[in-house]
Amino acid sequence: MSDKPIVITEVEEISPADYQSYCDLLPQLSPHVSLPSFEYLNQVLASSQVSFFMAKNEVLVGGLTLVFNHLTTGLSVRIEDVIVDQQMRGRGLGRRLMEEALVKAEAVGAKAISLSSNPKRIAANQLYQRLGFEQITTNVYRYAF
Fold it and tell me: What single-letter DSSP state applies at residue 1?
């Protein structure tokens, strides 16, 4: 990895090189993740319902997706797919990505922001708590096809 400073940017389109770096990172998020096609990922990033933040020096080393759902009860905002390359962890990149997402969510009028995290991701869960996220009691259900 480069010694160049890591910059966090919000992007609406991903380059082929950054796409490949992102696909290399995704298995660190989940070993069973399906990799998106280049076209699909750029379609998602162009959506007004999504903000994508990437951490990059010479290559993409982290990312975070902020999702906006306009519901009848108001704006619902979620953080999804937070990932920092294993070799880059412990340098504050996750915190920086999260802080950028929080600034954006507040700027668009969100009253709250949600996320879920695997309990086995101890460092990530500790980060979320340090940032002020509170664990809520809920039943999360999933229907798989």
Answer: -
| Planar angle of CA 119, 88, 38, nearest 5 degrees | 85
CB atoms within 10 A of CB 29: 16
Q: What is the DSSP annotation of 69-81?
A: EEETTEEEEEEEE
Residue positions counted in the chain: 145
Three-state SS letters, 119-130: CCCHHHHHHHHH
Going from N- to C-terminal start, the domains of the chain cover 7-130
Assigned CATH for 7-130:
3.40.630.30
Contact 77, 84 (CB under 8 A): no
- For the whole model, what pTM was predicted? 0.91
Each residue's pLDDT, cut to its tens digit, for the chain (145 residues) gives: 567 899 999 999 999 999 999 999 999 998 899 999 999 999 999 999 999 999 999 899 999 999 999 999 889 999 999 999 999 999 999 999 999 999 999 999 999 999 999 899 999 999 999 999 999 988 888 898 9
Decide if 98 contacts 64 (C-beta within 8 A).
yes
Q: Is 143 exposed, middle or buried (0-12, 13-18, 19+ CB in 10 A)?
A: exposed
Token pair 């990932």: residue: 83
